[in-house]
Amino acid sequence: MAAETVKSAFVGITGASGAPYAVRLIEALVENDVFVEICASEMGEKVLAYEMGGLSTKKLAESYGVKRYAPDDLFAPPASGTSVPDATVIAPSSVSTLGNIANGTGTNLLHRVADVALKERRRLVILEREMPYSLIHIKNMAAITEAGGVVISAAPGFYNHPQTMDDLIDFVVGKVLDVMGVEHELVERWGHKRRG
Ligand SMILES: Cc1cc2nc3c(=O)[nH]c(=O)nc-3n(C[C@H](O)[C@H](O)[C@H](O)COP(=O)(O)O)c2cc1C
Question: Do 9 and 38 form a contact (C-beta atoms < 8 A)?
Answer without folding.
Answer: no
